[in-house]
Amino acid sequence: MQATVDTKVIQGWWETRPEANVILVTGRVFDVLDVPAAAGSAALGRMEQTRTTVGPVAQLGQDRMLFFVVTRGSPADEDEWWSCGLDSEPESVTPGLRWHCRDSYVLAPPSACAGGLTARWLRAPREHPLPDALRLLEHLVDACEALV
After folding, report:
1. Is the dihedral of CA 118, 121, 33, 75 positive or negative?
2. Whole-structure pTM over 0.85, yes or no?
3. Of the candidates 104, 98, 97, which has an alpha carbon nearest to the alpha carbon of residue 81?
4. Torsion of CA 20, 25, 28, 34, to 10 degrees
5. 55-101, pLDDT tens digit by residue?
6. Residue 133: closest CA among 78, 88, 84, 76
7. What is the edge-to-edge ordering of all strands in the sheet holding 119-123?
């Protein structure tokens, strides 16, 4: 409820509550392709073999992997915005794949939720710039379909 981009405010929060979890809002600067961990691992291996540019990747618990990509953009007129069907109906296109875009969010590493669900970086954002989602999507869809 107290979201901000003010770095001084954020720094103060971290100093007073370093154990606090962070939620990242998607669809403004980046989107996230969220897949089952088995599919994500397979796709990541294939992308590395084919030298596909892969950006930041996080592991969410033992079950999910999060691939951070450049957002599809924000139109000048906010009324023209359309959400991604994979976000509102994640199982409608490919089982297991969800595209977090506008009006969605993900747990940011190194956060931990009740019940032991943790998020950790596999490929940190500092070393890996955000790629175009469409470059990764084919690999992720193929890996998700192979699990079915």
Report:
1. positive
2. no
3. 104
4. 120
5. 999 999 999 999 999 987 665 555 554 455 554 454 555 788 998 98
6. 84
7. 98-100, 30-36, 64-70, 57-60, 119-123
